[in-house]
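Section 5.1 Outputs to date
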Amino acid sequence: MFDIMIVGAGTAGLSAAIYAARAGKKVLVLEEKTYGGQIINTQEVENYPGIKKISGYEFATNLYEQAAGLGADIRFEQVMKIESIPDQEGKEVKKVVTNQAEYEGKSVILATGAKNRPLGLDGEQRLIGAGISYCATCDGAFFRGRTVAVNGGGNTALEDAVFLAGICQKVYLIHRRNTFRGEEKQVTLLKEKENVEFLLDSQVTALYGEKKLEAIEVANTVDGSSKRIPVDALFVAIGQMPDNERFSGLVDVDEKGYIKAEEDCHTNVAGIYTAGDCRTKKVRQLATAAADGAVAGLAACEYLEEW
């Protein structure tokens, strides 16, 4: 019987584990893939308070080692479902079913994060790993010295373009608007690079290639013109969507699939909390994920006092 079971080992989940473990609770963390969440693929983190510069991998590894060192039990299993069941005393406990085992605990923190949003174009799924990628730092090296494109206008897209510009012959940066949502510092840096071409007020409308990506069609949203551009890879960075499908019948979610919770991280179900990018919130940053984890971890500890 665990005190707190946490679904997700990203920044929010591991932060919750750190606070709960320091409070002397028996903590289980379940992660489907690898620890760290999205930040593990970020080349450099420069906006986390108190840390001037650190790689995403090092930041995530530090969190993982800190949580594990405090006694959190971290297991890499896929959570299939969660349900409430009565124990021998009639108290309500949570049962978490994974692809490997079943666990019982007094409370749950959902920190599932978000996943990359696809373009939704024909052939996109088929070409994943054959020219279509959602992680430049993961797959960019495969296209060293070649021509690639980045689709998006936020910080992730800009960071991807900066990284790729350093190893690729040519980088097209495609954005549906004429201004970027990401940091101006990154935009300025990209404008100084001779091998980066901006395609603004534009969007990718088609993918070409059978066994591998060979070209993309880019349409201008202002004048309606379009052109076919030969590329070896397209890195999609158009945002994320919540990874909450398995829990939509367990707790309330909004129309976009985000778990409904205010800054106290309480869901509509007693004993179930949520933290990080998977919950309804305006700002989704590394610092807010860590803050959510702390709040949810302490909220679960408070709940246990009355359990």
